[in-house]
């Protein structure tokens, strides 16, 4: 499903990824671990098509993911619907005037009918228990509430792959438990998870495969 072959990436002259080989099958739950600065967040950006390999190849379902390929609007729309990326800082992801508008934004951009947009929005509000927040501006919410809304926004697109960067960071225990249960159910439904985390409990509860990155920006499956 996801194949990286000898992928390298550098910020100017600073190496971030060094000859990365990574193969992820549909239904895997991959935990990405490693010290700060080893390239984990860069890897996530690359998987989401935000940056592109300077060497090597990235294939998703057999399609080469390149800057040129994602200039095709139809292909880019398909790819970004497949890959759900939940940012570590929810503030960078939320920008609409209300929670309801925020969740509906993605389905509207997909060109879904008004009825389908409404159904997906309502389903996600109920799924995360945030119906009472529907008219609230996202910037007035707590950290946990923002995390729920950012997840609802991604799930409204029904992605095949969900990618998370330290998803439990800054959340209270109740919200952490809710999120862990949701991610376990998402994975049980046959979806693919890729999670960066230093949290051992989360890694043990979610991980079926483990990718360890080192200070030389290399990756090994363990």
From TrEMBL:
Membrane topology type: Peripheral membrane protein
InterPro entries: AAA+_ATPase (IPR003593), ABC_transporter-like_ATP-bd (IPR003439), ABC_transporter-like_CS (IPR017871), ABC_transpr_CbiO/EcfA_su (IPR015856), ECF_ABC_transporter_ATP-bd (IPR050095), P-loop_NTPase (IPR027417)
The name this protein goes by in its record: Energy-coupling factor ABC transporter ATP-binding protein
CDD domains for the chain: ABC_cobalt_CbiO_domain1
Molecular function terms, GO-annotated: ATP binding
Annotated compartments: Cell membrane
Coarse class of the protein's main subcellular location: membrane
Residues annotated as domain ABC transporter: 2-222
Coiled-coil regions, chain positions: none
Family: Belongs to the ABC transporter superfamily.
UniProt keyword list: ATP-binding, Cell membrane, Membrane, Nucleotide-binding, Translocase, Transport
């Amino acid at each position: 499903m996801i194949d990286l072959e000898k992928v390298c990436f550098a910020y100017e002259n600073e190496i971030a990824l060094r000859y990365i080989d990574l193969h992820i099958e549909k239904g895997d739950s991959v935990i990405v671990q490693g010290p700060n600065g080893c390239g984990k967040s860069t890897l996530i950006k690359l998987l989401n098509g935000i940056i592109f390999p300077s060497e090597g190849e990235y294939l998703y379902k057999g399609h080469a993911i390149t800057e040129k390929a994602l200039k095709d609007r139809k292909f880019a729309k398909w790819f970004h619907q497949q890959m759900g990326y939940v940012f570590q800082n929810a503030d960078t992801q939320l920008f609409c005037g209300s929670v309801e508008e925020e969740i509906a934004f993605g389905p509207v951009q997909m060109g879904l009918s008004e009825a389908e947009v409404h159904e997906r929005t309502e389903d996600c509000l109920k799924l995360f228990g945030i119906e009472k927040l529907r008219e609230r501006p996202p910037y007035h919410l707590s950290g946990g509430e923002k995390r729920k809304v950012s997840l609802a926004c991604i799930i409204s697109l029904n992605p095949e792959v969900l990618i998370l960067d330290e998803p439990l960071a800054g959340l209270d225990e109740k919200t952490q438990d809710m999120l862990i249960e949701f991610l376990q159910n998402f994975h049980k439904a046959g979806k693919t998870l890729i999670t960066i985390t230093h949290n051992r409990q989360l890694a043990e509860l979610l991980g079926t495969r483990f990718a360890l990155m080192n200070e030389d920006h290399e990756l090994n499956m363990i």
